[in-house]
Amino acid sequence: MTGDNTNQLPLADLHSAAGARFGAFAGWNMPLTYPAGVMKEHLHTREHVGLFDISHMKLFVVSGRGAADLLNRACPLDARALELRQSKYTFFLTDAAGIIDDLIITRLGDERFMVVANAGNAATDEAHLRALAKDFDATIEPLDRVFIAIQGPESADVLEKAGITTNELFFMQGFEPRANWFMSRSGYTGEDGFEIGLPEADARQLLGKLLSDERTMWVGLAARDSLRLEAGLCLHGNDITPDNDPASAGLMWAIPKDLRADGNFIGRAALATILADGAKEKRVGLKPEGRQPVRSGAELFDADGQLIGRVTSGGFGPSAGFPVAMGYVSASLAKAGTRVFADVRGTKVPVDVHSLPFTQHRYRKG
């Protein structure tokens, strides 16, 4: 099912013992669901604490006198303006302003930064960064860590009970609480939560404590997807790709305004042209009529039968209580409430453009 070249998670034995059903994702053999099932895993995360193994993602430390300059070239970012512990959502862009990958970068010290990259793009990201680093006094160090996410409204309480102090962190902040650990208050669910990278032995010890708390449940990749979709968060490879630019994807909030005109990042000129001309399409939320989900790949049409867009992610939203989707439509049709039609196996299903997110974010901001 997964092939001989599929990477195995360091904690695969724990997932097997928990009854996980595995499947291939981004080159890794990942837990898709556990015996509770997607619906319960999803709702438990919204109500209590969901525990996710995200060790397929990659952590890099970028350090040295030229580290900030390297990151400023690679991303539409002002790395020197980041405060210590501040995390920032950003991207690697092509010369044409296409999104190679979306990332979170955290300032750990004066000349030291943590980069968290997506699993499917880890090799591409590392090669891209190393190629750029030839022109800068900077070192790139990939880390071999177990990476876990603790998500949900009771996450801080559960971690405190396990002996991990959280009250010094707010949303989009990260630090190294002890040797070889990285911890941030962030996540991919729209809930308050944390992501911790740590050595395997430490991870097994911490997980034993976390799972002894009845509020904590293992959650698989399927519910992780429905949670992030309800939260309106992009999945690279689906909702954002090298064929999408930040303006079309509705992600310009992540690019400081002064950098749009004066930044030295790759893709700046192309992005400036897109902004001047206006994006031709926009990423939007989509709410299908009825209970039938509309899946990724479905084409979207206007009332006259003209092709005007496509669905990039879709499924059922257990917390929203209705099917949810995201996709791209012509910019003139991107207003919430606009009705379009999705082609689902030859049937035109009415779909309304919907504001994002579908469920309210509940981050703990300072």
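^ that was protein a. below is b, sequence first then the tokens
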Amino acid sequence: MKVLALSDPRRYARFAPKEDPAYQAAELIFCDREAPEEEWLAAGGDAEALFVLPVTWIRESLIARMPNLKMIHSEGVGFDRIDLEAARKRGIYVCNNAGCNAGPVAEMAVMMMSMLLRRTLWGDRMVRAGQQGQAVRTLEGNVPRDLASAAVGLVGFGAIGQATAKRLRANGSQVYYYARHRRDETVEQALGAAYLPLEELTARCDIVSLHLPATAESIHMVDRDFLTRMKPGSFLVNTARGAIIDDEALCAALRSGHLAGAALDAYAPEPVPADHPLVRLAAEMPDTLVLCPHQAGITETSFYRVYQMLFGNLGRLMAGQRPDRIVNGL
């Protein structure tokens, strides 16, 4: 089966499951994800499967010109840049790797929370300036909180949200969550997480952490009203998607001091430009914003899992079976 992969072949060389029959049977055609559509079509317009990074736009114009296409597969969890409706109308499966990076992303979310609580950026700057003694005295006079004394609210409670709750429980945090569908009591008890309506969660928690996809319902969910409801002096963490946050509203909440800080690993747009409001604010308030380059899911563990799931679904497609983790309603 011919597969057009808009990805770096070095990733496949290192992480793909070489023993998988689907990998061995696949005719992989690689193209630069930033190349024009015409170049993709010239190389693999007759492909039956299309593998893409979550940051790559897959528009109707491309889908319409790939007559043999049966499956579009994100190499990650995100799929918001794929035209789901155009694929659905053609009967083309769109799939993702939900859960592939749950552990590593949760690990980074907890790390970012701790960085905010413990004033890590400020401490680093003080030591570099030769002011370690002053930093310690400042902390002793205004002792910071830690995860064991913090109430953390998780917005979204899928694989990543649940993995985050598991790690927070080990740190002794009081964990709450909000999701459109409340989980079973056995799941809540196992993870030590209590359900709260969104407005109550934002008002009660010292940290609010986002763990939901960018959809029509969630875009700019974190707006001025959301941020105003958050507890004064609280923190916002986002390891999900940048489009969930109204950036201007977040900048205003940080400048006013209503929020004590934020840690972000996703932006809108991406790549984030140097004149982005949040990048400018980070230069203005260097101790308040932790900005990471959307790296939470970029780990060995995640990548090995990605390609196991990717070629597992390709094998199902080769066998005439329905693939797993379909996200466009087919």
